[in-house]
Design brief:
The protein has about 400 residues and is α/β, with parallel strands linked by helices. The chain is about 45% helix and about 25% strand. The chain contains 16 helices and 15 strands. The strands form 2 sheets. Strands 7, 8, 9, 10, 11, 12, 13 and 15 form an 8-stranded mixed β-sheet that branches. α6 links the parallel β5 and β6. α6 packs parallel to α9. It is globular, with a radius of gyration of 20 Å.
Length: about 400
Amino acid sequence: MVSPQQRDFDIVLFGATGFTGALVADYLAAHAPADLRWALAGRNPGKLAAVRDRLGAAVAIVEADTGDAGSLRRLAESSRVVASTVGPYLRYGEPLVAACAAAGTDYLDLTGEPEFVDLMYLRHHATAERTGARLVHACGFDSIPHDLGAFFTVGQLSAERPIRLRGYVSAGGTISGGTFESALTAFGRFRRAAAVHRERRRAEPRGAERRVRAVAGRPGYDRDAGAWVLPLPTIDPQIVVESARRLDRYGPDFSYSHFAALKSPLVAAGLTVGVAGAFALAQLPPARRLLLRLRPAGAGPTPEQRANGWFRVRFVAESGDRRVVTEVAGGDPGYGETAKMLAESALCLAYDPLPATAGQVTTAVAMGEALRTRLERAGIAFRVLEPSVTS
């Protein structure tokens, strides 16, 4: 294993020719320090060269393919940090995770696939702990605003008392073909995903001193959100709870509930019917393939659509007689801000002094305040709307 200090690159971006990968490459070219040693990686050198020429940046090219274990091993051993945008991760992600874990290389991705995250813990967490690699999944809109937003919010309260936290997500944007495929894949595999999650929970060490859990909320009108809310069955609660298990600042008894916040009950009803319909159709492979034609891989929002995108996550925390309300807000959630989040996460791992961690860790555990500071400088707001007061 090549020592990280002796490697050719600080950061390698794997998947730079894809829709989101190209946005991450744009961000790094525009915002990375002048001394950053970085590379674009993928299976097609000609397409990578076209991205490099478009960027006009001094960036290297590394040929690597998810089906070629040797190329991924060489890729992992050449860099201190590898960031991957190649999904769906259940289909394409594991070989690179395995290579980074074995090489002691920090790994980042954009997955929102709970089954993938649980499988990677079961298969590669122990190796990464041994080699010192940090495996950090969900480094985009899934799940940085929610993970670091929860981290920021509980920091406004005492760590000595129980904390009940609720997150309310509002957003406007357009999804890409890759995100649509990942969602349908997750719908179609929900039974398998639940079984894998139970296996992971059995394998994880348990601490008897603290209680940490996700709590499914109820749909309906919520006065704290000032909106109609629906429980969101995304990966975000899983990530928030994992951070809470690892960090004492979440208190001795922590619970988290996660909602979509919608202004109209008609919109809430329509979203419920639409998601239920997609879920039902995703159970049938022919129907799933037909749905994928609606948003083919490689398709994504236009620059104008991204410019009009936005997100806001409001957090309400209660601890004894104290209550605090915070907010994380930014622009286009799925692509503009997601590219920023992944790029800044990679730069954070490459440059910033961070806690000593290894294995599969969350953004809050691995980077915490350092990454929040970076994101604030990059234009993502973390605000206290109502300071901690007696409720």
